[in-house]
Specification:
Elements lengths: L3 E5 L4 H12 L5 E4 L4 H11 L6 E4 L2 E4 L1 H9 L3 H5 L10
Parallel strand pairs: 1-2
Antiparallel strand pairs: 1-3, 3-4
Length: 92
């Protein structure tokens, strides 16, 4: 199983949706809540190059936000990534 990290904010509907998608697949993930943690939010921005949440990383590689995660799932590319068997479709 791949290591999944997701940067979120408590009030963000897209963060909730991304976690729900991962929960539906029974994928364990580390939720890094940056709602009130500016230092961690800055680290997320530096790591991902994006200012929005969620920011999702699978095995250390950024896949983007909820829209990108959902698109990977719709194309059938998410499950191989989560199983640790694929890298296609992952943004660098």
């Amino acid at each position: 199983m791949a290591k999944v990290e997701i940067y979120t904010k408590s009030w963000c509907g897209y963060s909730v949706a991304a976690k729900a998608l991962l929960d539906a697949k029974a994928v364990p993930y580390t939720d890094i809540d940056v709602t009130t943690d500016r230092d961690t939010e800055v680290a997320m921005i530096e790591r991902s190059g994006a200012y929005t949440v969620p920011q999702i990383f699978i095995d250390g590689r950024g896949v983007g936000g909820y829209d990108q995660l959902s698109a990977l799932d719709a194309r059938g590319e998410l499950d191989p990534l989560l199983d640790g068997n694929g890298t296609r479709g992952v943004e660098q």
